[in-house]
Specification:
The complex is a heterodimer of chains A (112) and B (112).
Chain A: E1 4-7, E2 10-13, E3 19-25, E4 31-38, E5 42-49, E6 56-57, E7 65-67, E8 73-78, E9 87-94, E10 102-103, E11 107-111
Parallel strand pairs in A: 2-11
Antiparallel strand pairs in A: 1-3, 3-8, 4-5, 4-9, 5-6, 7-8, 9-10, 9-11
Chain B: E1 3-7, E2 10-14, E3 19-26, E4 30-38, E5 45-50, E6 56-59, E7 62-66, E8 70-75, E9 84-94, E10 97-102, E11 106-111
Parallel strand pairs in B: 2-11
Antiparallel strand pairs in B: 1-3, 3-8, 4-5, 4-9, 6-7, 7-8, 9-10, 9-11
Classes of the chains: A mainly beta (112), B mainly beta (112).
Chain lengths: 112, 112
């Protein structure tokens, strides 16, 4: 039972570089979410998806793009990384919008 | 504005020294309040959900309670393995859909 798997676990980027974070879930969940976690600020929602082929903006979407081409995968892209995007990124999924979230173990991203 | 505030930010206890963590919230359309435990380098792990004022849930040394304005996580006779960050989140109606709004967490250290 893998649950929610995030890759990579760690990454260092230079300012201006691009990258994609992958989230995969094997629970047939409809809803998927990307959060960032910064010291003293808690988890903040970046983007989310309510099903295959759909995406929507969360609280802090600027500088990020997402895609959900397959139900089990939710990709988070940074087109031009900035130091302000240094953070720990968590993916989560849920069966419905009100059911329990399952979180991945996170990706620690540093932008220098 | 929907807001979740946790206190204290950090708490140090001796093994066996009971205490409480606080989560206060101001949200509209509250559906439920969640407590999570987060260990270093890992994603949040679900502990409890509370839906109505007066409700209580227990699990081992932890008990969560809910009022109309706040929730408490009581830790009775804690052990070093209870050391973690405890996150509170409220499920509230935001832009016509339910979202989880997180507090910034309480870092608990239990010394032997």
């Amino acid at each position: 039972n893998a649950g929610v798997t995030q890759t990579p676990k760690f990454r260092v980027l230079k300012t201006g570089q691009s990258m994609t974070l992958l989230c995969a879930q094997d629970m047939n969940h409809e809803y998927m979410y990307w959060y960032r976690q910064d010291p003293g600020m808690g988890l903040r929602l970046i983007h989310y998806s309510v099903g295959e082929g759909t995406t929507a903006k969360g609280e802090v979407p600027d500088g990020y793009n997402v895609s959900r081409l397959k139900k089990q995968n939710f990709l988070l892209g940074l087109e031009s990384a900035a130091p302000s995007q240094t953070s720990v990124y968590f993916c989560a999924s849920s069966y419905t919008e009100t059911s329990l979230y399952t979180f991945g173990s996170g990706t620690r991203l540093t932008v220098v | 504005e929907d807001q979740v505030t946790q206190s204290p930010e950090a708490l140090r206890l001796q093994e066996g020294e009971s205490s409480s963590l606080n989560c206060s919230y101001t949200v509209s359309g509250l559906r439920g309040l969640f407590w999570y435990r987060q260990d270093p380098g890992k994603g949040p792990e679900f502990l409890f959900t509370l839906y109505s004022a007066g409700e209580e849930k227990e699990k081992e040394r932890l008990k969560a309670t809910l009022t109309k304005k706040e929730s408490f996580l009581h830790i009775t006779a804690p052990k070093p393995e209870d050391s973690a960050t405890y996150l509170c989140a409220v499920q509230a109606l935001v832009d016509s859909s339910y979202k989880l709004i997180f507090g910034s967490g309480t870092r608990l250290l239990v010394r032997p």
